[in-house]
Amino acid sequence: MIRFEHVTRHYGDADAPALSDISIEFNRADFVFLIGASGSGKSSLLRMVLRESLPQQGKVSVAGQNLSLMLERRVPEYRRSIGMVFQDFRLLPDKTVYDNVAFAMRVIGASRSTIRKQVMKILSRVKLDHLAKRFPHEISGGEQQRAAIARAIVNSPAIILADEPTGNLDPRASEEVMKILRWINASGTTVIMATHDRPIVDRMSRRVVQLHQGKLVRDEPNGLYDPPEGSEAWEILSAEEAATGLRASDPMPQRTQLHSVVAPAAPAPGSAPSSDAETAAPTPQPTGPQAPEPHARAAEPVTAVNHYRVTWPQDDAASDSASDSQPGAGVDAADLPQFDAIPAAETEPAEHTPAPGPAASSEPTPATESAEPTTDPVDTVPAAPKTGSAPRLNWLSHAEDQSPPTAEPKAEQQSEVPRPRASAAEATYAESQRTAEQIRSSKGGLFRRSRRQR
Ligand SMILES: Nc1ncnc2c1ncn2[C@@H]1O[C@H](COP(=O)(O)OP(=O)(O)OP(=O)(O)O)[C@@H](O)[C@H]1O
């Protein structure tokens, strides 16, 4: 679904590239931890998926669409299929929790009743419904991050990019956040999370991608934060942590299975058992009833590779179905967010006036085609059409970039039922639903089908 092919990116006149010859793939329903020292390129990689930054060499494609060739007017629609979560939450301070989440739906023109229903449903899922009328400064950091995640997921994105979402949280709040991200992932959403949080990575036992000075040095399914001892990636991490004064190596929790990162055909992410049980204790515990069976980490050395590329099945549909078995593992189905998006039948003629939630707010007007996305000047890439010196993308002030949409197959089918006199906002919403679904299905190109459908 997301493919990096020999991607290199320099910023300005820096000698060292932020990303250097990165080749990697992420599939539907992957849960990926991006780790590496500060400055290793984690955020740069996320920004490329978001198409906030473009490669100077190589190619980044999502659902078959080369992001460098994506038309600028398609970018907002594309970005609405991605939910962003940041370390510093980035909630709108003058809006209530409800309005922060509702905002993401208003900008795509959802109807008032749909917004109310969906926002309260999502707030309830993240256990914030009782705080819907509070402002960000009236709730805790953990609650703010849950509100930020609610905003990111309210339109059911195909991809969640989380940049150190637990960086400002205590372990308990972090655990709550991770629980929500697991729920989202269990619904089929790809989650890529940059983090320095060793206990969380170790507890989750998901795919771990390690960067070092812009290079990919490890890609390990069901990995721990620490690479296998003795591997080149382990040497790198140890040296980095020694240099920064952080611990070089803590006692590692044991686990049952080791996947070599240099295997020519790594298993699809869904094919490996996950020890990420929702039943795990609320705080990280390397041992205990939930811990995997003691098993020494395999002694085989793992080679650090820059050109390494995971050999996932070429057919995304096949890998999708393979990975479908994993996401729900250990998750109580009753607790899963029901990302049924907004049934088309419920979609009312879009509001062009602000929709008051529990607390009134001033609202932006729905996104329009004229509100082009912006690209950081530093990221202007010659090959990209129409990139320029526009101001830096601001997720909070730029309505066009604010929200990711999505659709479950059911919603997509419904949206194909002809309905008379669909408003522009409805059409925008339906289009963005299709985009998310196309990213999920990942075959036939990102916008090909939507063009035919129009
Ligand atoms: N806009 C920019 N302009 C110039 N250099 C940049 C820019 N953004 C990132 N860099 C540089 O690119 C390299 C990779 O930065 P990046 O933010 O991707 O690292 P990171 O792994 O996310 O770090 P951290 O863990 O501290 O967030 C660093 O050397 C950084 O200084």
UniProtKB/TrEMBL annotation:
Keyword Membrane: yes
GO molecular function, one term: ATP binding
Record field: compositional bias (Low complexity): 264-282, 315-330, 341-375
Keyword entries, A-Z: ATP-binding, Cell cycle, Cell division, Cell membrane, Membrane, Nucleotide-binding
Xref: SMART domains: AAA
Compartments where found: Cell membrane
A cellular component annotation (GO) from this entry: plasma membrane
Keyword Cell inner membrane annotated: no
Family: Belongs to the ABC transporter superfamily.
Quaternary state and interactors: Homodimer. Forms a membrane-associated complex with FtsX.
Full protein name: Cell division ATP-binding protein FtsE
Species in which this protein is naturally found: Garicola koreensis
